[in-house]
Amino acid sequence: MEKSCEVIVVGGGHAGCEAALASSRMGCETLLFNINLDSIALMSCNPAIGGTGKGQLVREIDALGGEMGKVADATVLHCRELNASKGPAVRATRFQCDKQLYRLTMKEILEKQSHLAIKQSLIESLVVENRQVIGVIGNDGVFYRSRKVIITTGTFLNGLVHIGKTQIPAGRAGEEAAVGLARSLQNLGLEMGRMKTGTPPRLRSSSIDFSLLTRQDSDENILPFSHRTESLWEKRIPSYFSQTNSSIHHLIRENIVLSPLYSGVIKGVSARYCPSLEDKVMRFPQRESHPVVLEYEGLHTEEIYAKGLGNCLPPEIQEKIVHSVPGLESAQIMRWAYAIEYDFVQPTQLLHTLETKAIQGLYLAGQINGTSGYEEAAAQGLCAGINASLAHQGRQPFILSRAEAYIGVLIDDLVTRGVDEPYRMFTSRAEHRLIIREDNAALRLTQYGYRLGLVDEQRAMDITKKIKEIDEKTARLKAAKIYPTVTTNETLLNMESTTINNPVSLFDLLKRTEINYEALSSFEGWEKITDPAVKRQIEIEAKYEGYIKRQYEEIAQMKALLAKEIPAKISYENIPGISAELKAKLQQVSPTTVGQAQRIKGMTFGAINALLIELKKQEKQG
Known about the structure:
CATH superfamily of the largest domain: FAD/NAD(P)-binding domain
Structural class: alpha+beta
Number of domains: 3
Distance between the termini: 54 Å
Mean pLDDT: 94
CATH class of the largest domain: Alpha Beta
Strand content: 15-25%
Number of strands: 24
Largest sheet: 6 strands, antiparallel
Low-confidence stretches: none
CATH architecture of the largest domain: 3-Layer(bba) Sandwich
Shape: globular
Strand order of the largest sheet: 16-17-18-19-15-20
CATH topology of the largest domain: FAD/NAD(P)-binding domain
């Protein structure tokens, strides 16, 4: 039996959902496979969306026409603005969502999407002819034909769950691993590795003594992730804090040989930035405690996510650990914590479109590329879906630069530097983070989404109108002057600001840290702004004008140099001044520009200079 479509997406996690929606909305007949349709968009770990570096990704996904932010807005239970007291470059939104409602909401959106079919099946193998993918074969025995296939398998490739000495082949607890597909990818000659992640225990809320815990309520006046959201879901529940102690640490040290992470059973690489509890205890012996955060998984469940208690120790040790945490002395464990190992594909084998270099028409997105996190997965899925559709339609690929978006940083890091541990987005990874902030994502990227056909005309017009209003109001503030009169200086002193001796524009006055936009209402030339997003943009542009201008100048200076193309057939072997190790890396990555070559891990200034000399020499030779 044979069926055919234009784009196939394997895996219905966060990457698969965005990939399938993007390709179908761009007019491609798309087929999405998932092992279990009831686990589409399931939050396997913490049901939270956003966070530092991640909130920026969510807003960018939304600006391009993706769905993650809108679904998070419709299911949020607890919301916070992280780094609110710091500069705008590192501020980020984080939503704790209703786990089941998020899944069901996203599933409904997929089911109602035109040009998209959804099928429950375990894909066993890829079918490739002459280095071109032509389809997949499911465990139902059906050959599904397509020349554009996107693999978004998460932790399912040869997934193996560890709880103490117990090992369970699974993509996650309770779901079958994708063994055949992993073998199929290996047989294609792709370089693969092994990684490890984990999830903490889930506790029953009615068995927890919340009176012994520190309560944290949601922040007020949080803006939605999506510009399509008029108002957030109004349900709110608190989170709670506790901590580990010396008795727990002593218990873990005494039983560390029972952890497959330390006994040598687990071979996969763990993330340094998100260690399990036993890893934290062993790596930081000087620490007397580690935070434990208890977060509800939904309105209609008693399950509590115990962040900070992730481990892969035997059940009897897990119980002792949980019951030694203040407030959890009588807590019932509903689901054990566990670790999971899985295969991934080294992403240096991908183009910036996320298509594999070796197999035409085969795209990879999400944890299969060595990343960690729903947001990183969704961003990759969106771009893979877009580029698979563009390729099918014979259109130019869509690639965001590092200066345009965190998505550009994410994909460039993966395909240029590769991964040696699960990759997670941080603001520190973005060298231009002051101009690719969370608050201006829609202003930066909506027009791209519109041109791709993922954003409707009205939404694009609304954003264009907002940009125009920001520009006009900023120009008026620069034109409005105040003069050093007695009244003016008294007003400034009342604002706890310094007086002026020369005429000053309202825009320059807004640069002062102690003055916000509303404070300018005391002066002639001020105009009321009803849109809080517009007001926020003007304040940020004023207060950080010098820094923003400097970043744009740096980008302009480097753009021409780094955009210099490298011929596909260049031979690095004969270029003097480049070490053998860097030559091998250049050969493996095959960078298309000098900028991409510069970002290869370990690349030196001398090697880049040698490459530029060689390119100039080749240009002279014609």
